[in-house]
Write a structure and sequence with these properties.
Layout lengths: L4 E9 L2 E10 L6 H11 L8 E4 L6 H9 L3 E4 L6 E2 L9 E2 H5 L8 E5 L2 E5 L2 E5 L2 E6 L1
Parallel strand pairs: 3-4
Antiparallel strand pairs: 1-2, 5-6, 7-8, 9-10
Helix pairs in contact: 1-2
């Protein structure tokens, strides 16, 4: 049985979504991170604000730096084993999943998106390999 992994990127502006690239991932040629870095570097410069939106697999220092260098802010989930440095843990840090167990409902904000309600926790601070990254 054979399969292929692909990296698909879309550009979105004012409600218009266009395919930007479809790349076949070949681990013998380059890593997914390197492929993504090349893709981010090829993006057109944003006129106002631009964002790179990814899932947690791509949330790493290399992609953060490539996005910033290309003029984009990075938005993405982070894995629960990432180390963060919230108040009270500034010196050694704490893994996100461990920190989450210390929160109660009063620490969250209720937001509504398209008639759906969500509780979110906002954290602006350092990650182990990145300084001052806002997390929501």
């Amino acid at each position: 049985m054979y399969g292929h992994q692909i990296l698909v990127s879309l550009l979105s502006c004012d409600g218009l979504v266009l395919p930007y690239s479809i790349d076949i991932y070949d681990k013998d040629f380059m890593s997914k991170i390197e492929l993504t870095q090349k893709l981010v570097e090829s993006l057109p410069k944003p006129e106002n604000k631009g964002y790179v939106l990814c899932d947690s697999w791509y949330s790493c220092k290399a992609i953060f730096n490539s996005s910033e260098k290309a003029g984009y802010s990075y938005i993405g989930a982070i894995k629960t084993n990432r180390v963060i440095y919230p108040k009270g843990h500034e010196r050694l840090g704490v893994k996100l999943h461990k920190f989450a167990t210390t929160l109660d409902i009063d620490d969250f904000d209720l937001v509504t998106v398209k008639d759906q309600e969500y509780y979110i926790y906002s954290y602006i601070g350092d990650l182990k390999d990145r300084k001052m990254l806002p997390l929501f």
